Amino acid sequence: MVHHDTMTGAEILLKALVDQGVDVIFGYPGGAVLPIYDELSKQNRIRHILVRHEQAAVHAAEGYARSTGKVGCVLVTSGPGATNAVTGLADAQCDSVPLVCLTGQVPTHLIGNDAFQEADITGITRPCTKHNYLVKDTNQLARTVHEAFHVARSGRPGPVLIDLPKDVVQNRGLYQPPSKTKSKYNPQVKGDLRAIEKAVDLIASAKRPVFYVGGGVINSGLAACQLLTQFVRMTGFPCTLTLMGLGAFPGSDPLFLGMLGMHGTVEANMAMHDCDVMINIGARFDDRVTGRLNAFSPNSKKIHIDIDPSSINKNVAVDLSIVGDCAHVIEDMIKVWKARQPKIDERALRAWWAKIEEWRGADSLRYPASDTIIKPQYAIQRLYDLTRSRNPYICTEVGQHQMWAAQHLRLDLPLHWLTSGGLGTMGYGLPAAMGVQTAHPDALVIDIAGESSIQMNIQEMATLVQHNLPVKIVILNNQYMGMVRQWQELIHGARYSESHMDHHPDFVKLAEAFGAVGLRAERPDQVDGVIAEMLAVNRPVIVEMRTDASENVFPMIMPGMAHNEMVLGQEDRSRDNPGSEQDGMVLV
Amino acid sequence: MTNAVQDSNRHTISVLVDNESGVLARVIGLFSGRGYNIESLTVAEVDARENLSRITIVTSGTRMIIEQIKNQLRRLVPVHKVHDLTIEGPHVSRELALIKVASTGEKRVEALRIADIFRARAIDSTNESFVFEVVGATEKVDAFVTLMQPLGLIDVSRTGVVAIARGPKAL
Ligand SMILES: Cc1cc2nc3c(=O)[nH]c(=O)nc-3n(C[C@H](O)[C@H](O)[C@H](O)COP(=O)(O)OP(=O)(O)OC[C@H]3O[C@@H](n4cnc5c(N)ncnc54)[C@H](O)[C@@H]3O)c2cc1C
Ligand SMILES: Cc1ncc(C[n+]2csc(CCOP(=O)(O)OP(=O)(O)O)c2C)c(N)n1
Ligand SMILES: [Mg+2]
């Protein structure tokens, strides 16, 4: 019997998504989710982007989320659809990206029966989601969806999965609006004021300070990035950003030291090593950043602002911690700073900046120029110069090209830099760019890729063409898994085991086969031309740049080394015997 | 101090969670996935109306690891309260064990005599066996088990530790 106020589970689901502000779903159909797809076809409030592989749906949702600050949404079927999504979920978990992933499931009475296309996806994804749900009752569906969005976006953001047995979306039940849904999950956003005051005192007393800022500020949103910029400029202190934090502070500001860490600049890493007060805002002391822990910034007092208490004192013991959302905390810090008008030690700071300028003088990102072969750094620099006026969104794959992009693009805008940092997922960039372009149809969206990474989700070219998403893919083709080759060269006696691919597709023809545009540059003097051509078309484009195969990313902190033990370049590398076995923790 | 070798200490942690499917798997998965120790873990519903269960975990680690464990537990969505009874003041803890001893003659008499000293009750007996119930701190149960070993001990079932803070305040 059909009650008037009841709806089918599929209807409830879509209504709940609309009420949560979802305007796009990235997905792929299958038996268990057919009732949902049926319902999708009857409405036009939510756009569906049909991907070619479920992993790409999740990365696309990540791109959507990270470039908008909203929660990304994914819909996939049970069994293989759900397991294909796992890499994307793990990626979002590592980089704190808010997602809701809806997976189909076999009907409740078949769960546990090894039914067709059954996978225990809540079991499989428990460690790689922020939280997950198996809905067993249609009446609980709306509540669960609302809570899932709340959990995904609150506190430290992350992916949340909802497993939906087929009968639950077919049965009828009652809808419940978001306003009637209370959750017990309410992480603390305001920081402790006493601690904030102490932090301000410590910051004001610094002689050699450095701001070490990470993805948490991006997670917190535009307001946090603006407040951060305001606060750093008020102090006049130097600021370095992690890979995930790039864009949180303007890359062209003279106070910016560049990225820190394994492939960070000399000035950033040396400032971290020699500072007396470190102000960590929304960064998690990742092992790619700290280098050898017992030599990490040995003489500093460390302040750590993070919304997740488990990030504090995890790898590095700090002197002063503030749990809270960084927008709120920085806002309070600015207030306290203004109220106290602290006298800072101008003389000491001048000396500190002089030291920093000395390190800057090393010009650690310089590379040998060439007029016969395209240096990858050159390609990226030209790309930056020729596109920066259009404020492009830049996505990357994983490898050397990612590091060169991080080093050489001096991004000024937050939420415009999308890269897989924590999991380091090759194949992230193209689908992420797809998601960004979906959210910002008129923007310039570029994926900086390696020829190996791009092949991990190359099938999504078809999605770009089908949905008119004019993403620009710039492949730096160095013929190698360059980052792997670099480690083999530097750490494994130049034995290039399986890091060279003897065969690659013809990327120009490949682009054309997908119905996109393919371009190629083989010499430095062709670089500007292909970039201009690429920008001139309003369609998806693959640009292949044939780059120097032997180039390595420097500076580099070798595994097990400290910030003041960077290897600066090819000539410099005999200095230490890197790769001490003790530090097997660091991976390529 | 980051890499300094620190003493590992045993802590008893009380965790109040929603009594829903999967919550135990989340807690146990956190310990196995992050390589933390579980020395003992008990769980049962404690508030039917609010649908809450209480998990008592005995674990060991350095100060930093114990802090991590507690913060990681607090991150789980169905976890509402995490209290470290070991550092939050005095608490009492108890464990119950059922211990089967199969022996005759002199050994059987000796088993009964020791059970008496430990205030263990015989809750089942046949001509050649006893099942003893012993309650107490973990060390007491350990001692009892050790003493029963040469006296025909063949089977042990222990609950693991349950604990609660002393004094008038609730968790
Ligand atoms: C090939 C390769 C090389 C790499 N090399 C480098 C390198 O040289 N340098 C480098 O920096 N990285 C590098 N990385 C990335 C590195 O692995 C980490 O992903 C990165 O350093 C982590 O950045 P983060 O510390 O900003 O933390 P994120 O992973 O961005 O974490 C954010 C932190 O902020 C907190 N947070 C979230 N929301 C809020 C909020 N609202 N308020 C306050 N806090 C919040 C979170 O709890 C978390 O602790 C590399 C990655 C790859 C794949
Ligand atoms: C899915 C996945 N598999 C393997 C790796 C290990 N890995 C890191 S970088 C890299 C090579 C990337 O090659 P390419 O895309 O050509 O980029 P390049 O380093 O040459 O710029 C590999 C294999 C990874 N990060 N992700
Ligand atoms: Mg390559």
Describe the structure.
The complex is a heterodimer of chains A (588) and B (171). Chain A has 588 residues and is of the alpha/beta class. Chain A folds into three domains: 7-180, Rossmann fold (3-Layer(aba) Sandwich); 193-360, Rossmann fold, CATH 3.40.50; 376-546, Thiamin diphosphate (ThDP)-binding fold, Pyr/PP domains (Rossmann fold, 3-Layer(aba) Sandwich). In chain A, the strands form four sheets. A six-stranded parallel beta sheet of chain A has the order 3-2-4-5-7-6, with helices on both faces. In chain A, helix 7 (141-153) links the parallel strand 6 (131-134) and strand 7 (159-165). In chain A, helix 1 packs across helix 2 (34-40) and helix 9 crosses helix 14. The termini of chain A are far apart. Residues 574-585 of chain A have low confidence and may be disordered. The relative contact order of chain B is 0.20. By secondary structure, chain B is of the alpha+beta class. Chain B folds into two domains: 3-89, Alpha-Beta Plaits, CATH 3.30.70; 92-163, Alpha-Beta Plaits. Chain B is elongated and about 55 Å long. Chain B has four helices and nine strands; from the N terminus they run E-H-E-E-H-E-E-H-E-E-H-E-E. The two termini of chain B are 33 Å apart. Chain B has helices at 23-33, 63-75, 105-117, 138-148, and strands spanning 9-18, 40-47, 52-61, 79-84, 91-102, 121-126, 129-136, 153-158, 162-165. The chains are: A alpha/beta (588), B alpha+beta (171). The interface between A and B is medium-sized, with 24 and 20 residues. Bound molecules: flavin-adenine dinucleotide, thiamine diphosphate and magnesium ion.
